Amino acid sequence: MKTKIAFAAFLSAAGLCAQGSAIAVTTVPATLCKTYGATAVSGLSSSHTGLYNTNPAPVSVICPVPRTRPAAADGYRAFVNGRQPTGTTLSCTLHSQRHDSYTLGASTFARVGDPTPGGIVRMSAVLTVDKVSPLSYQSVWCSLPPGAKLFDIELVQ
Predict the structure, then answer these.
(1) Cross-strand bridge partners of residue 22
(2) How far is it, in rounded angstroms, from Cα 90 to Cα 61?
(3) Contact in structure between 139 and 112 (CB atoms under 8 Å)
């Protein structure tokens, strides 16, 4: 019994219990992303660490971002984590749409030029709460330059 109480206290203190925590973070591996459009693109490979563009041209991908609860009062935020070669542009759009294909909102974010040492990129975008209705769904669209890699997308709800 003491073990269960101690474990519950640990989870609560760490913010890992849904009840009482201010935010929920959902991580979507980039291996769930697909090429955007009807045509498959060669040069897009996936591994346990993410999705990699080996094509000599940019490739557009779309990634599902499931919403596990209503958006917080300060909005719906997505972080894109990846790697980008120096001198390239990695751009992504957090998109919200109703089931009838009506666009509710979009927020575009990009990293141009030199990323941090090692090429690691962490970008974020926010949709206001009015753009994330209960019957909507969200996705992240990215244009991956040659040599770029997506690791994952983190959703803060």
Answers:
(1) none
(2) 12
(3) no
- Report the CATH number at residue 108: 2.60.120.260
> pLDDT value at position 2?
44
Ramachandran category for residue 87: left, alpha or beta (phi over 0 → left; psi -120 to 50 → alpha):
left
CA distance 51 to 75: 27
* pLDDT tens digits for range 101-132: 899 999 999 887 666 667 888 899 999 999 99
What is the Cα–Cα distance from 74 to 46, expressed in whole angstroms?
34
Distance of alpha carbon 121 from its chain centroid, rounded? 12
In a domain, 83, yes or no: yes
Does 1 fall in a domain?
Answer: no
Q: Is residue 17 part of a domain?
A: no
Count of the separate structural domains present in the chain: 1
pLDDT at 110: 87
Supply angle C-alpha 123, 126, 128, rounded to 5.
175
Q: What is the pTM of this model?
A: 0.79
* Confidence bin at 135 (pLDDT 50/70/90): confident
Q: Is pLDDT larger for residue 70 or for residue 11? A: 70
| Assigned domain for 9 exists | no
d(CA 157, CA 144): 25
Range of the structural domain that residue 48 is part of:
22-156
